[in-house]
Amino acid sequence: xxxxxxxxxxxxxxxxxxxxxxxxxxxxxxxxxxxxxxxxxxxxxxxxxxxxxxxxxxxxxxxxxxxxxxxxxxxxxxxxxxxxxxxxxxxxxxxxxxxxxxxxxxxxxxxxxxxxxxxxxxxxxxxxxxxxxxxxxxxxxxxxxxxxxxxxxx
Length: 154
Hints:
154 residues; 8 strands; 36% helix; disordered C terminus
């Protein structure tokens, strides 16, 4: 599982995992679990205010190689839980949708499950029309308050 989100959500998940006996920090690895900052994950795929599809494909291919080389091998499924695209909402809302569509296109044939975490208060105003198309881009979406009061684990 890869958790790609903001620090306060990673910290909350790390606390929950610790309570279950996992020694996973908010940024780090524990077995097949990886937690990274969503803003940092976005930076390498943006070039001049646009999505660098080739770089995105390279990073996804690297991730898929790691998945298949892992202890569970080629039959494993990698679950991504994250909020990477929400960083683009203030910059370019349409780019947010384009990022989600690119992710889906590139990962369609891979054994990836994507769960997006959109902060629901963010869509109460002018961006309300973006919520349905963003949610439609993935098989699973969890709706969280900005404070992350609902758990990603249960």
